[in-house]
Amino acid sequence: MNLHYMNQRLCSLVVFRELLQDPVIAAFQRMLASAELDDGDAFATACAAFEHRLSELPGYEKEREKVIANTEALLDGRPANNVLLYGDAGTGKSSAIKAIANEYAARGLRLVEVKKNQLYQIPDLMDQLAANPLKFILFIDDLSFTTNDDNFAALKAILEGSVGGRAGNIAVYATSNRRHLIKETLEDRQGSDIHESDTRQELMSLAARFGLTVTFGQPDKSRFVQIVMDLAAQYGVEDDPEKLIVRAEAFAIRAGGRSPRVAKQFIELCKAGVLN
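The chain above was modelled as a monomer; its predicted structure follows.
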């Protein structure tokens, strides 16, 4: 298998499918144990192919600082927490995690994305990665559950460390638009559960099992304006600042509200000449 192709596909972000059956993942496991992974420069170059870089993410610096500090603890062999980034859509939660992985790839950090329906396979993955000298973030994007979801119990066990103990070179980073992670309806509260309060507390407690929770709230006007101006400088969009801000605010209203994603879409459309 072509090493360059494997680097591109697996260096910074590995889409984790069927752990033992997938030949690509099997090849990844073999590469983890090989000396080729010791070539930090080669992997840093491959990681640079991914679009997310910390220097390109305007706004939310204080929020990212907490995640960065936790990541550096992981890299230094100090106690590191599992991390939950939650908040409004489009605020850069996933981008922050991917950018941090890119930033520290040369120091041996790798990002492995796990889909929600693959959570039960994480213990096997941890067994494969625990003895490796590299450090790993297991990344779960857009996390949420419904009641009676089997994956809920799987993640709960993983976060509690009851599955084979907690490996010192692995941390779980998850993003969600929901603080309590469980989608609950009025019908769920009208069931026949005698100990309904206890059940509800258990469902709501999953988020508390993440040692570090970072909130990415919708930006207010001043933060949104700063994000727009920073992105305009990055993309080389030259326009009267006051006019640009007015247009950006109008664009955000049509797009459903302010967010870094909306700001980026606006600036990209300006750069392309679609919005004049």
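Strands lie at 13-16, 83-87, 109-114, 135-140, 145-146, 170-176, 182-183, 212-216.
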